[in-house]
Amino acid sequence: MRGLLLTFVLLAATAFAPAQAQRALPGLAEGLQYRYIDNGQPYRALPPGMVEVAEVFAYTCPHCAHFSPMLEAWAKQLPAHARLVLVPGVFSRDDPWSRVFFAAQAAKSLQVLHPRLFAAVHETGELPRNADAGQILAFAGGVQGSNAAALKAAMADDAALLPKLKQAYDFGVRSQLEGTPSLVIAGRYLVLGNSYESLLANARAVVDALAPKKKPAPPRAAPAAKPAAPRS
């Protein structure tokens, strides 16, 4: 009986070890630099070895507006194994700001519209925070470089929009987010920080800790022995 109990304890410890190793990141302090998300999953699938850095944001959030250009500059310095993904904070399927984000993505106009939407709300006052879909669409369609016709069609395409809205909503729920902007890395690590700068510094530390392990180089073959000189 004692032997069986010992075996059970050892098996339980072995089963629990991977979860512990996955939770802990070398050189980082959980609770100070990141919070581990139980049962967390990335927003979308990436190739093996790639690490997703997901920013959950809202166009109506002033902190997100200030953070966005800093994040963009930071992302340009990411290592090859990491990729930034933008995720709108979805609070309902009818949220016009989230809908216009995905519509702009589909219309290949997001690159030009993303900073302009922030500016329209927080700098120029061209859009109120409670703008409806019609107001946002009219503004976005008039931005130079956007595809107004494709944007309008994408905003009306519920069959394409609703699954994306649900995916973003589900990601926010399972990541246990409490506000925006939030950075979630690999779906399991919510980055912590008391300033934009510390948030980005801690995010980079998590990204580096999740870098794929380099395979050791194969041992070099021993040099061939020189043939002995013939005896005279």
Structure description:
- The structure is a single chain.
- The N and C termini lie far apart (77 Å).
- The chain has a five-stranded mixed β-sheet with strand order 1-5-4-2-3.
- Helix 2 (62-75) runs antiparallel to helix 4, helix 3 runs antiparallel to helix 4 (110-122) and helix 3 runs parallel beside helix 5.
- It has one domain (26-209): Glutaredoxin (3-Layer(aba) Sandwich).
- Helix content is 47%, strand content 10%.
- The chain has eight helices and five strands.
- By secondary structure, it is an alpha+beta fold.
Compute the number of strand runs: 5
* Residues in helix, %: 40-55%
| H and E string | HEEHEHHHHHEEH
- First CA to last CA: what distance? 77 Å
Annotated CATH architecture: 3-Layer(aba) Sandwich
Residue-averaged pLDDT, rounded? 88
* Main pleated sheet: 5 strands, mixed
Main sheet: strand order: 1-5-4-2-3
Low-confidence stretches: 1-21
Q: How many structural domains does the protein architecture include?
A: 1
Q: Find the CATH superfamily.
A: Glutaredoxin
- CATH topological fold name: Glutaredoxin
Instruction: Report the CATH C-level class.
Output: Alpha Beta
